[in-house]
Design brief:
Structural class: mainly alpha
Number of strands: 0
Shape: globular
Largest sheet: none
Radius of gyration: 19 Å
């Protein structure tokens, strides 16, 4: 059991679960917008998500990431480096428009993670806008990039889907923000620090309502999409109710991240039955 627990912890800590969440959401985009993108995009995002997320989590300072003392973190570092050449290989096959989209997102990631702003600050240290930057990057990665890769027109429905994905990620960030209250510096002014845990959860619940009902703004809605989003809407509402300050070890890092994978599974199942 100890070996399985260590493997599972590495799976979470090395951002492999996050990478699967990214892949799940680009497939949600593929199914809801009925587009077909390059398979290389999926593999590129899988390997690059692992490398980027681990750098943000463990290596914001270059010296810290190069001179790793902890053996466990060194293993995560080596695994991240191992993923880079695979990401670059699949990036070679992406079209020019996709590259432009990736470049814009990389700038946002760099501003978020690296101290390149005045007074050596990054957007990650600005708790008030941090989650909005994260939601913007995720929505751009999981909706805009697949559209660019598919070489299709950015339609009204694509815009609605991008907005919904932005809201979806904002809601998923709420449990993480509440969990991190124990570690965040008071000057970060995160949403739970500013408005309290209860008000932040109420805000998250309101965003779930907007997330679901904006589905009816789309020109084309399938029964499978509507049903899957309805179930995810209910699930997110339960999450907002159950989220508390003292969470179990795997509540946010595994269960919350798994909602993206659940969405893909539900959508695929309902579309097959209709």
């Amino acid at each position: 059991m100890k070996v399985l627990r260590r493997i599972f912890d590495f799976y979470l800590d090395a951002s492999i679960h996050v990478a699967f969440a990214v892949i799940s959401l680009i497939w949600v985009t593929r199914l809801t917008l009925n587009i077909s993108f390059e398979n290389h995009l999926g593999w590129f995002l899988f390997f690059s998500s692992i490398a980027c997320y681990n750098f943000i989590k463990y290596g914001v300072e270059a010296e810290k990431y190069i001179l790793v003392v902890n053996r466990y973190h060194r293993g995560i570092q080596l695994f991240s480096f191992f993923c880079v050449p695979f990401a670059l290989y699949h990036a070679y096959f992406l079209n020019f428009d996709t590259f432009l989209g990736i470049a814009v997102l990389l700038v946002l990631v760099a501003v978020y993670a690296l101290p390149i702003l005045p007074v050596s600050k990054n957007l990650r240290s600005w708790g008030g806008i941090k989650i909005f930057v994260v939601a913007l990057v995720w929505s751009g990665t999981t909706v805009v990039l697949p559209i660019l890769s598919s070489k299709t027109f950015f339609s009204w429905d694509a815009g609605v889907e991008t907005f919904q994905r932005f809201l979806f990620i904002l809601v998923l960030m709420v449990p993480f923000e509440i969990r991190d209250l124990a570690y965040d510096a008071p000057d970060l002014k995160t949403l739970p620090q500013r408005y309290g845990v209860t008000n932040t959860k109420i805000l998250g619940a309101l965003l779930t309502l907007v997330f679901f009902f904006t589905t009816f703004l789309k020109d084309e809605i399938s029964i499978g999409e509507l049903t899957s989003k309805g179930l995810i809407f209910l699930f997110l509402g339960v999450v907002m109710y159950m989220t508390k300050r003292n969470q179990s070890k795997y509540y946010a890092s595994f269960f919350i991240e798994s909602i993206s994978i659940l969405w893909w599974a539900l959508l695929g199942a309902f579309l097959q039955t209709n």
